[in-house]
Protein 1
Amino acid sequence: MTAPNVTITDLTVTFRRGEIRALDGISLRLPVGMVGLLGPNGAGKTTFMRVLTGVLLPTSGTVAVDGTELTSRSQRREVKATTGYLPQELGLYPDLTARQFLDYMALLKGITDRRARRVRVNEVLELVSLSDVANRKVKGYSGGMKRRVGIAQAILNDPRLLIVDEPTVGLDPEERLRFRSLLARLAGDRTVLLSTHIVDDIVQTCPNVVVIERGHVAFQGAIGDLATRAEGMVWHLTQPATAVPPTLPTVNVTPGMTGTTYRVISSGTPAPDAERVSATVEDGYIALMHAIAPERAQHPGPNLRAI
Amino acid sequence: MTTVLQRTAPPTAARTWWAKTVAAARYEYLMQVRRPAVWVVVVGLIALRCASPFPPGFTSTTDNTFLVADWAGNFMLCPIGVGAVLADRAWRESRLGLSDLLTSTPTGIGPRLWGKAIGAGAATITPVAVAWVGLLGYLTAQRGAGVIPVGLAAFAAIILPGLIFISACSVTIPYLTGPVLYRLGLFGYWVWGNMVGPRFGIPTPAGTPFEAIGEYPAGAWFHGTLFDARQRGITPTGGEAVLSIAFLLLMALAALVITQLVLTRRSPS
């Protein structure tokens, strides 16, 4: 199995007869391995993923997987056969067991041979550590277990392109770590597109990242390059607890004995006693979102190429 | 790392369509038949009507065909229950947040719609069949095994066509109306179209081959008691009974085919 060549060209999606432009002329090529997709609420991440999975048709522009464009119904079905999707709003049939649900999904994904289907369902149940509870109805599962059923169904057809939308929302820290490592294991020689609000999830697993803001690609490149966008602009600013907080973009706030320390983004020195610190990916992201970074245009990295 | 699937032979498109439809039907059946509401509502309506069988005295007849036909007539309320508990199936995937997941598979809307109609429909008809089998068991204990074949024939000819028609309507029309409005409409249609005879002076299909309670097959083949057809001065023939059944089955087929076409046009899958 080889990772697919996913090329997105001038992709635009509008709603309400063009009033809302959810995606506005996105062009990029996805590399092999884990690719993080970051962006604020309403930036267009879910819309982007729904188009890639063939769930939503674009208003204009093209998505091509190994040269097959998702234009006709038959072409979309061809691409869907090798794509896995874990949607943000994951629903399951509550009255089915995990094994029954996966068996049904395997059939819908075209695995019609009963023996092959049974083997495959057992494989994915093992992979997501649900074999022991596979015969229990999913309505009795915890949020984390349901998410694992979600990822299990996504990999049933051994997809070359795996798209996961906010997979760790609502999970406890341990479950989140487990989920993260599972996705990293799956990446291997396939492309995994991971959308999340949690920057740390992307830092820990994704060598490459795409940032979408208001339907545009605000950044695409290596994860380290996102951090360097804020280099030299990150400051620790300590003020008395009673003082008015700074109006600068603030990454975090730490209360202390001597006052409150703000981690802020500023292109100039925000105060005489401010201390410059090294930038993290989160700083780079906040800087980008507040348009402080030197350039907001697309910034191709070593593996992500702007078209 | 997961492995690439080794398929023994690539399935043909037709075989795939059929396999997916059967799978969808199987799982829809499983999910629907486990719902307590299906049993409570359907069996409740049967019990309500059969508590005082109509017309009075028919249970004392010695003619088995007449007997089972009039018992079948007493199942006339159960299609309302069948339709009511099927009506929420149409939007179920959307309500459960499964729409995107299912649309992301390479399977189109067809196998899922037909699977839902066949599987959920069969599951909802199951309580009717169980009640009928129970009744036949009771009648067999009273009158002997001769009731069984005629009882099964009466179920197939009098009760089942109406149930299939209502089932098909109940998994398709709610896409347009939503389940609540559909249930109200179904109740109104059933009373108007099958129980309000021509004596009320309201134009109605009751007493014509286009009603859904099986009066024509009951009258033509089982010598069952006629109500609305008699008011119209009609004694149904075998041909009219066939027409009545064919009409219901064709309407069911049309509802499903039209819905499949509309949903396929709307869906990207």
Protein 2
Amino acid sequence: MADLSRREMLKRVVVAGAAASLPAPRTPVASAQPAAETFEALTAEEGATLQAVVARLIPADERGPGALEAGAATYIDRALAGPLAASRGAYREGLAALDRHARSTGGRAFAALDPADQDRLLGDVEANAAPGFGPGAAGFFNLVLTHTIQGTFSDPAHGGNVDFIGWRMIGYPGVRTVVTPDLQRIDRMPPERQVSAYDFPAFSAARERRTRGH
Amino acid sequence: MAIELPKRDVVVVGLGAVGGVAVLPLAEAGMDVVGLEAGGWLRARDHVPDELFNNYRGWPESVQKANREIPVHRRSASSPDSPRGALHPMMNAVGGTSLHYWAQSWRLSPWDFEVVSETTRRYGASRLPVGTTVEDWPFGLDELEEYYDRVEYAIGVSGQAGNVGGEIDRRGNIFEGPRRRAYPMPPLRWTGFIEQMADAARGLGWHPFPGPAAVNSVRYQNRAACAYHGFCDRGGCHLDAKNSTAVSTIPRAQETGRLQVVTGAHVRSVEVDGEGRATGVSYVQGGEEYFQPAAVVLLAGYTYENVRLLLLSKSAAYPDGLANNGGQVGRHYMTHATGAGVLALFPHRLNRWYGLPAQGVAIDDWAADNFDHADLDFIGGGNLWVYSDRRPIAAARMPTFGRAPRWGSAWKAFVADNADRWTNCYLQKSTLPYEDNYLDLHPTVTDPLGDPVCRITADFKDNERRIATFVQDRMVEWFRAAGAVEIVRQGLGTMGPSTHAYGGTRMGDDPETNVVDRWGFSHEVPNLGVVGASVMGTSGSHNPTLTAQALGWRTAAHLVENWSSIAG
């Protein structure tokens, strides 16, 4: 599955004629350093802000990698160019407002703030208490949180959950097409077996139309 | 100008769970049937175990007619419209929502057919809630039993009988009405967690049993047995082990050569002649307008669409909508009170990652009139259902039981530890019809063709709120007995668009208070039939689909037997 994601990314980078800015492999790392990445729907600035946001919503920490490493920002960006296009405006306005809020209170872009400051700002947004953000702050926060969870825990074919980071985080034992009684016992958990649903031959034909801009 | 098509014996509007059943007895009787379906065909390979696609994207591969006409809800005639959701709870396709439903296939309780007379007999008429318009059904469970049986065998239902011919079998539902024979397949198996819940129920003196499901527990009709892999909630089955009408009754009807399936057909109105008889239906397909003449019209849409089509079909003979000169279309609307849920956190893993919502343990001790209501302040009750179904996104969106924030490292640690230690349940409570709960057309909101969408004016009343609290208490008791360490009670909510919507074209002998007669044919338009949960006069406390299918079969069988008098 990691191969697939990298292949996807390689393809995009090559198409953009920017092979030199090949992103680092998305192996699980306990770092919240945003990767240099080309975006489909978002501007580079918006993308960097979004990466910083998802990295705080589900952080990389001593328990393992988080939403950034899982590619949640990539998932959101791709979806905003496709099935979530209706939310593109909300992201444009919300990310800009977040950056304005960061610059006016911390003197720097949101992505450049310390994690503790980022958390404080996000708390303001969640509580609808971010000055200059307008009345939709909490709604924007909920939108990003919803999409971050989708990107972290959905099938990797949609661009997130890279290396099954999300599924491993919560102990999901993996997509199977046949589940025996033994795999439904309460005294013994199923062995982990991670695969994308679209890697099963029966579903591979549906991959393209399901995971790109319908 | 509409293209006029050759006349058919019967045009069926909607090939979902109910229309897809009703076409079978018609086609087998040799009638020339055309089924108009807004959606298209989806096949096994379209049903990928992909939670994001199924549960959050609303099946974008299916035709989105339903999503362009989502009903608008308000709590009362003086309330503002409630916020409108982005997805219709139902879908359009051949097989309709029977493709992605949970497939629980229950018969109603005997009491559900005779709420008025049984309440009066046992507790006195004063116990009927103020403002209810409930009537006894025009017949009892015994008269519908034959059709329940036919549908159970035609589509395939797994289950454990609890009452065969009056003989009680304690492995099944001891409260069910008598059935003529066992289910065609044994019940779906139980998981370790479900066994734990069943043991706890027995410890409370209750009667747990496996619920019935239109899912193959063994190979049936040359279709595979369930593989218990999950993704069944709003997901179709890649093995055709879930018995949607698209893989059961519709193909069988097609094999007779008497059913033509027309997909992508958006029906806009039923037409009538000068004498007030239905002449056929008008529909749009690919931007082209068609008129399909037929001797008999059967509406087989979902509750909201059956009502909307009648109200949209205005004519000189029916100025307020078809079959609505008595003003009953849209009345007696109900939805199941499925809110007021209970969430429970356990101190150990449940291994609930696989399985399906129809794989579970049921309690009917607190449903219908299965317990004494003499000292209670309500009538009716609820079915308690605990099942095996967990998907990763839903697991990550778990409640935090007051033990963690919504995001950040503390949230992440909590979810990592507890994603498989919690469960929800499904509590279906009986709902009654009331004078001021109804459907009509929205004055301003329309679909893309400019036709008004359905408007729901409805809210739960005291009887439903009291049932909800009572049933929630029983569920809390059950979870505690099974070892839960944290419990969250959810709110009841209100009566917005639902997968369990009833009424609006109620069935009954009295034309003053009902739209269709005891056979499902209009009191006003003799060659117009209506099938679906919209004809049901009570909700019961179990899933509606099997009952709506049994009623649909019965209406079709009646049409076959009385063709000349109905078709004219």
Protein 3
Amino acid sequence: MSAAPVKSESAATGPAEPAAKPRRAGLFRTAWGFGRTKVGVVLTAAIVLIALFGPYISPHTDTALVAEPYVTSADGSPFGTDYLGRDVFSRFLYGGQILLLLAASAALFGTLAGTVLGIVAGYRRGWLDELIMRTNDILLAFPQLIAALLIMSIIGPQAWLIVVIIGVTHMPRVARVIREATLRIVEQDFVKSAEAIGVPRWKIMVREILPNVTSPLLVELGLRLTYSIGIVAVLGFLGMGLQPPDADWGLMINENRLAITVQPWAVALPVAAVAVLTIGANLITDGLSRASIGIDRGVEK
Amino acid sequence: MIRLIINRLFFGLVTLFAVSLIVFLATQALPGDAASAILGRDATPERLTALREQLNLGDPVAVQYGKWLLAALTLDFGTSFASGYPVAEYLAPRLSNSLWLMAFAAIIGTPLALALGSFSAMRRDRGVDHATSMVTLVLASLPEFVVGIVLILIFSTGWLSLFPPIFAGGSGAVWQYPGQLVLPVLTLVIAVSPPIIRMMRASMIEVLESEYVQQARLKGLPEKTVIRRHAAPNAIGPVAQVIALQLAWLAGGVVAIEYLFRFPGIGLALMDAIDARDIPLIQAVVLLIAGVYIVVNLLADIVGLAANPKVRVSAK
Amino acid sequence: MSSRGIPGPVPHSPGRTPPTRRELLRYGAVGAVVAPALAACGSTADPDAFAGKKDYADPRRGGRLRVGIAGGSAKDSIDAHLATDNTDIARVYNLYDRLTDFSLDYKVVNSLAESLEPNAKADVWTVTLRKGLTFHGGAPVTAEDVVFSLARITDPDDPKTGAAAMPLLDRDKLKAVDDRTAEIRFSEPMVHLPEVLAEYYNGIVPKGYDPKKPIGTGPFRFKEFEPGVRSLFVRNGDHWRDGEPFVDELEIINFPDDTARVNALLGGQVDAISQLPHSQVKVVHAYDHLDVLESESGMWLPFTMRVDRAPFDDERVRQAFRLIVDRQQMVDQALSGYGTVANDIYGRYDPAYADDLPQREQDIAKAKELLADAGHGDGLEVELVTAEINAGVVEAAEVFAEQAKEAGVTVKLNRVNDFFAEGQYLEYTFSQDFWAARNYLSQAAQCAFENSPFNETHWADEEWTEIVTKASATVDDKERNKLLRQAQEIEYERGGYIIWGNPTVVDAFSKKVKGFKPFVGGHPLTAYGFRQVWFEDE
């Protein structure tokens, strides 16, 4: 999150290197070759496993009242209780699912929509390109968090709204990158020849262009996923995410932050989970990025 | 070059205009009668009438927008529903608090990041360099409030009790409470630095490998002088844009940090306004933040143009 | 929030400051039914009864007391008769005195009045002032000032907060008999006048009072006031209560935000704060130099079930819901243990309070049976509208949702942030609310008659209405209490409220401040009784 503008900018100029032929399996294999990718996969997998299976191994349900509020440990409650006397560990185990689901949906939605717009703008050019990119620029004028806060303060916190807002704010950033990649592919012979034999435009976009932008696409997906996790978490932290009594890491942090002096676990556990998850996702993205363009993602050369 | 800049400026204005329209439409889309939704339990016929008038609710939407925008241009954002103060008057001290916070972060963070980046570049591929690369990658992925909470856990309530966990302030200006400022400023510094460090490192490596630096070394100049006189000034150019972009990020990123530390700035004002459904205040703060964001992004653009030798040459 | 020059902090911030403006509205509507209660008001009342017995040896004089009060906004007022928010209430308590006062245990005692006696019909009251009373600045307090104050409060062109409770006051016949004696006439019996006059918004002010130069008889004199931010008062050396106040200066600072308020105390920027959130008591206890004041109160945070709408139009469902609640757990979890269990009836400090009714306990089996009888054997799903309108309200909703699971009831929480919006409040089928301590008839007038301003359960029980209407007209205490007992039994059996507990008001202060005592009326910090506190030493 912290570097959102920079990363999208640099990622936009990243794929300026020779657009390699689509070799998706190769991309993953190359990425796996980097040590940091492996670390990223392990970190991410650990959190995803906790999120997916946590509820099944949890000692209590996420809403069960197990002891008095804000004790640091109790019988069957190794990490103590929250402001209402619910088990912090159980809520931690329950709290990842929705966050992951929302973040993944938002990242997918934003990347897909951005890809479509980027390819259309890059291939069709002309007024459509102009319209799409100018609209993008306006959308980019809102910091993502501010846009989310503005809309959610009016409509109220809803899960689908979180997905839509984060997705829409990702869209222009993805579209920029994909448009750049498309522009280079459009110039290539196989596109020209497909045009020459009268292949419909939509087919060219789907069959010729899309497969050739998968590398930047995957990098963008990873990047957007990292940011989505951060924004979903920060919205929860600001009290604009899921509503009580749902267990959610961001919400847990918000609910219990006032007592950080007497019951730090209630904040530390979800904070650690969000931290590990974002770090893991970013490391994977970094590996993918290096593999796709042969350089360290971002600004390193 | 000049034309390019004018072009960007013009587009910045158009964007600002579009943003104001979005903000207005979004806030006007309140379900039902905005006035009674706002007043709630305190609604009396007189107050409803007064508020509807203040919101120009009787006019067509286009006219409402026009009136609102014209007033906003003169910094008249109406009256805060919750406090009864003019929004501008309410926000002014908070804006200055936020600016102080951001200024501290920028003044401390930028030189530190530049130094770290250069240091890393000079020890390329050694342990320090790898460590820096890893740490900045990790820090860059963390949401800023996570950084803040970890700092609170370390320096305030967990291991060490060095600094207060929250900015409580006092009757004076915010900079009169340096102890309370440490954690919020540090959080922001950590949040904005990693990309600057990485960019500075990359840029420095490139410059160090360039011919004129090699020549300077051949001339027998001490390494310190080479770095200070020749390498560093040339390496900073490309980094300038990144710095500007990071400053732009601060405008929005400050919200979660102010909320976490209860720092009385515009970010906290926004959260309070959302809670109280204080529409004029929400409109003003969002416009303000978007405005700062647009302007600083614009500056970054211009700095980028100026730092790009190709554009500079062709403009001559 | 506390920086100088920042105007009006936003009320109703993320913290959980109770919106007292609404409480005020409710006070304002008291007059709907004349509630005769507590007619007698002995002339021998100890002026210090309110302060409680002085159990200290030698309070020290001097120092500036800085207090952080929950709430406040740019609408803050220092007018003796217009206090609305908590910070206003704190200020008027210290600038002005009333003819009567509530004692620590919610009894009415004399204050400026030496005696307040009704005639046989209780439609003419004679008040005699204490001797030697003076206003800030030295002018003597006379019967003329009493007449002026009451006339100002009930000015038909500009009625103040207290006007609604005295609709039958005959303003034209207000009369100063002599310097210290005044006659107050009503067009009908007004047996509970002493109770009404004790309210904080009925202070006595000098003839020609100008709120811009707020003069009263209170323990502190006005010095500075910045609406929405702070005020500074100085010690009134001529105060009629012997020796009080002890501190030289009183600074009241607005803190609408809970976290900021607590942190100001932790950081030593204030010496005391009002309304510590219950779950934060532990936080304060972790500091050696701080202490808390726990005041049991008659406040209540009910669940409200609309008796005219399914599924709650069925008495059995209402009863089942009341049996679902584990009240002790509710207090333990939602209030962190700071409260006492209640029994579905209100008016805790009313002499007629039916405290011998069997305490209702959780009984899931019985609840399930009742629900099955009502046709909900396969489970029931209800929406509970909740909001952060008072500390503990959303927490109670979360606990209830959990407890209801056991009985096969699914409670879906709908947390709204415009709870009191027109057309929504009073419409919710199943919701929550908060009420301050009040005696039974005054409370019933607010919320239980068909035409009451806040009848959130849409209660319109004919039998109950008949009994309570009769009680309202009954002057004899014993007779009236008997009727009120019947009324409470009806509500206990089929009312629309689930009254699970009374929260304890918790304040926090530095240990160097001495003299705070618990007050049951709900106003924090000994009803803002800063005149009786002092600093232990430098």
Protein 4
Amino acid sequence: MNTQFLLQLLVNGLVVGTLYGVVAMSFVLIYKATQVVNFAQGELLLIGAWVCWTLLTKYQVPFWLGMPMTLVFMFAFGILIQVVILRPMVGEPVISVIMVTIALSTVFQAALKWIYGVNPQPFPRVFTSQSVTIGSLQIQTVYVMSLVVSVAMMIGMAWFFKVSKWGLAMRATAFNQQVAQSLGISVKTVFAMAWAISAMVSAVAGVVVAVVNGVSSGLSIYGIKVFPAVILGGLDSIGGAVVGGIIIGLLENFAQFVDSEYLHWGNLYEVAPFYVLIIILMIKPYGLFGTKDIERV
Amino acid sequence: MASPSLIPSGDFRTSYAVDTTIFPTTTSRNFAILGIILTCFAPLVFSEYWLAILIQIGIFGIAALGLNILVGFTGQISIGHAAFFLLGAFTSAYISNKTPIPVFFAIPLAGLVTAMVGLIFGLPAARLKGLYLVIATLAAQYILLDFFSRAEWFSGGSVPAMANPFSIFGYVLRGDRQYFYVVLAYVVVSYLLVTNLMRSRDGRALVAVRDHYLSAEIMGINLTKYRTLSFGLAAFFAGIAGALYAHYQLVVSNEGFGIERSILFLAMVIIGGTGSIMGTLMGTAFVVLLPESMEWISAELKGSAIDRALQLNNNLTFLREIAIGLIIIAFLVFEPDGLAHRWRQIKTYWKLYPFSH
């Protein structure tokens, strides 16, 4: 057994997993606050990455300025989507809303391919690429950066929900919309904010992935990988999303290890999360930390 | 099916049996029969190009019909429909190649196999709310496509699988003109079957599950059973359609059956009208004709300023996807009942013309 290789893959898994966790977190944020299952989460990530890429390469904006500009754009963009497309759908059946987000993801995906083409683009160097050696492992600085940013965002999110006024309003809305409204919380604004924050967080994750791997339409796969993560963690648990994301990331890389060392099947790591998804639906459908939805008749 | 408001005066129903007939009036039945007879002459009239489009509408119409049972009548969504379609195609090709079973029987068999596999994915989710079925079918889409690209014994792996041409009692059908009738027969039978299903106890149970699942359960409807049943039916029709597609193309490959195709199937159902059987066919026709019409338009615009600005030729695929997505959103926001609803309004208008108020 190749321990070195396994360790390397597990470190990769941790890095990718925290990113899944961040995206899953922003997915759950929308789901919790607005009851919308967002199939376009991966596209939000992709849009963030492309916007930042355009600012940095086309307009030669320095990174310290380009990143906040991207965030501002994504904030406005999130509100725009919510107000223009999702707001008319309030009160419609769940499946209609789901289909709207599926259609949105198609539109964004195709529009981005149209604008930027299908070829991956390298991201401008933001950090001087070096590798840190820990023990016998070589870890690239971008990976460390990615891990640090992800963890920082998770802590920021936790602070936001536990302490800040907006976070509390959002939690109140998620708990019960009518009660929240009677306490003077504008549910409309909370919905828009949920999308805005979710879009921003996704964009940060998108830029991080872009810095590591370059920008391409393949990034939107993160939006799909979110589903195994959130089902594992529980659909309405933000902490569960993080844990689920990390587990899926580790598992993916572990599957790759098993595959390349023993099975030689090829791309096992791509489908392994989906097998996990089906198994979890069979044995523990509400995930590790999700609220059990019990309806007695 | 016409809406109840269109029943002509003097037409009284005195029993439930009469009230639930497939065709509410004699005229509507005669028109339906006339329509089918006229369609029978299509191969004699239309060019190869139009015939191919008609066959596609028929085949995809059957798959979309299955999806409409799930989406329109039971209120669940599947975004793995393309994978089940493809499974039907591969299964039928496999059966007709590797076993002595003729193609004629391979097609319904493929439908059954697809329904079985569909149940494996649908069963865990059917116990839960619709939301979970979406996610389970998403997993099914990826797992099945991965399986097809891997299982060489079944689908040929990276090499496309060959399918035998359709034959009946030793007579092999060749070309689109003859195959058209096979598709037509399947379309007529499936649409009649589903219309009939919706008149039955089981069909009404499905609608009850969609409208209010808690009330349905209170009334003694087994939710898990009916959700599973409708998912199995959806997979069954996807399998049948896939098998028809396999013996039409004579070659089956993974190409073009990703999640985008599943979304196309959803688009057919939404555009046609969720919960409308004839609407499904309209929606399918719309979705099949949309890329074709975009191609005509881009051919017309060739060399013009718009063409140069948008580079239509290179970007047509993307524009098509954008159009499909926008149309789905537009229909969901502005016309949730789809084309079927429009069609009913037009019919009402003419029925009462010139005294429409």
